[in-house]
Amino acid sequence: MAGFFTTSHISTDRPEAVSVAKCGSCGLYKGCKTPKMEVIGRGRSGILVVGESPDSEDDHFGEHFSGVHGDVVKSALRSGGVSPQRTWMTNAVICNTRSEDPPTIKQIEYCQPNLRKTLETLKPNVVITLGKAPLTSIVKRYWKADVGTLDRWVGWKIPTGDFWLCPTYHPAQLEDLKNTLMTKEFE
Q1: How far apart are CA 77 and CA 45, in angstroms?
Q2: 165 DSSP assignment
Q3: What is the pLDDT of residues 52-81, one digit of tens each?
Q4: pTM (two decimals)
Q5: Are 107 and 26 in contact (CB under 8 A)?
Q6: Sequence-separated (6 or more) residues with CB below 8 Å from residue 83
């Protein structure tokens, strides 16, 4: 097989049938103001943006990407000629994890059926993942090897057969990089 994925990394088994999220096992919904957030946006552009998990601002306002990180994402979309209102937006984990750390593997696994259902229902043409959690949630269906570092995937446009997968960094990482570049003294 030619292409991005080699036969040693592609799973030939059908993905396991997981149809119900394990929110009861995770328990995150119990501590959220806005548990189990719904996808936002109209999606007319055919683009789905998937973050890691809602932060405290998102939880407070009841909408994905409503805080500072959301402003970074929306600004990046606009600078690329895409209206944020014409995209769909969600997260790999749809409840606030109440932590500044990325979601855990277990949290991603518990919530993975939600993202799969979103992908099947919306049928986006392009999926932009922001950080390792959404990348892991999506890629694990196709890639049986260790996903590895996010840097390994960023910048690729990966055909999955259903949509183009475009992994990039979490908005906090992009802001950190921007700040580093702006303050670094070059000789």
Answers
A1: 11
A2: E
A3: 999 999 999 999 999 888 999 999 899 889
A4: 0.83
A5: yes
A6: 45, 77
